[in-house]
Amino acid sequence: MVTTLDFNHKRIELGDEGWLEVSNLGLRESLHFDIGKPNITSPTVGEDIAGATHNITWTNSCRLGGTVEIFYSDDSGLTWTVCVKVAGGDGSAETDDGSFLWDVSGIGASTTCLLKIAMTDDISIGDVINGFFEIS
Prior knowledge:
With 136 residues, the protein is an all-beta fold. It has 2 domains: 2-34, no CATH class; 38-135, Sandwich (Immunoglobulin-like). The protein contains no helices and 14 strands. It starts with a strand and ends with a strand. 21% of the residues are buried.
């Protein structure tokens, strides 16, 4: 998905893959910026989470700053539940250190689990794990 804003003879487009483009419509010039995005590194596709906790890990190259939220689904992505909200140290949420010890003890067993991470201010900037993992 691309979000487009037109104003004052300029166009700003924000792409869901973490890029920003600014165009001067009168001069047909444009600048393209890679703003980065958060990416999940664990759990991985096919992983079986057994036990009461799992360490979710991610990297965040998003240059916009702000808060990210991590969501899980245990029904193939039909519904999503917030695991944690993480911030850059402003005190409003967990500190974004790329890791969160996730308590899965209250989640029923499922073989169709997904995880996604997104910027709170723009959920189109983020990552969804590429396949299912299991909670047993």
